[in-house]
Amino acid sequence: MTEIFNGVKQLGPLEDALKYYRICRRLAEYLVQSESQLVSNSRDIDDILDNPSQHFNLYEFQDGLVIPYLKSEEHMRMRTKRNLYLVDLDDQGKLYDKKLAIFGNSVGRAIAKQFVVGGIGNDITMVDPDTVSGSNLNRLGVGNDQIGEVKVLSTALELSKIDPYCIYRTSAQPYQLGDFGKDTDLVVDEMDDVRSKVLLALDAREKGVNWMMATDLGRRAIVQGSHFKAGKDDRLFGGKISDREASLLIGCDITPKDEQRFLRKIIGVNNILKEPDLVRSTHQIKKGNLEGIPQLYSTVTKASAYMIELARPFLLGRIGRSFREVFEPARLTRHSTTKQKFNDLRDIVSILFHP
């Protein structure tokens, strides 16, 4: 089960602004500037600094930092002000009130950060049993000091400094059916295990919770979503996996070869064919030459950014159907000769169908 992250605590309203004068003054300057655009008689900066308990809260974080913040509503207005005209003010408020659940914390970490920075969600569940290791530093964007830390706790600490008012729920256990409820607005699947992916999609459909998944595929990204809310669509993975196949996946023992077959169906062989380097690299896992599926931080970031661009209208009810979008800058960066294309196709066919 998920637990509320306890790596940050509110020390209470800030009484002494002078101790944190530099930060508080800049926050007060923002507040005065913001209000001057809304009302004719804005407050004076010195008045705000003279009454810190009315405007600031003090938070202490797990790593010892103590930081003042504007109170919740003013803090969120500050954080999202530059979103205006790209995101409607009323829409921004609706987005902040959403409850989210993210499963998997590599691409999932980038997605969670996109949500929080963008002011989307004030209650976020993150589930992943893995820890930060040397081999995943390339896509997590953290330093060596994080090695050995539980991924979701590391992510929650980072996000809590961006928005300490958001509720962060974490679980360092494998995905379980009780990790999210029917009141969740969106579940996001970024897990590697095929059986868990199917179970999560079935669970979301059963509870009527909309589902999304971003796949970083070499240098390309695929984002898809299922509109399970109100029973508008009951297909799994956009119809790529049937209910019968899902039952096979969760109801009996399957081989790694079976898992690969289901993954190919979910991703699409046509998309795999366009990433020969990834297929060759992935094949090295079977030979024991690689620890996991290769991922680029640039593609992880792209996948998370595309996810948020689609999640925003999806959460607002402006995408009323299931969808699947492929973003492929690789077509501009890879220039192959006819001979190279033939060799790529030969290698892919050999690897996929004659492992």
Work out the helicity level: 40-55%
The CATH architecture of the largest domain is 3-Layer(aba) Sandwich
Largest sheet: 8 strands, mixed
Low-confidence blocks of residues: none
Total number of domains:
2
What do these coordinates show?
This protein has 355 residues and is an alpha/beta fold. The protein folds into 2 domains: 7-70, no CATH class; 89-254 and 293-334, Rossmann fold (3-Layer(aba) Sandwich), CATH 3.40.50. The protein is built from 16 helices and 11 strands. An 8-stranded mixed beta sheet has the order 1-7-6-5-8-9-10-11, with helices on both faces. The protein has a 3-stranded antiparallel beta sheet with strand order 2-3-4. Strand 3 (56-61) and strand 4 form a beta hairpin. The longest helix has 19 residues, at 297-315. The protein is elongated, with a radius of gyration of 23 Å. The two termini are 38 Å apart. 33% of the residues are buried.
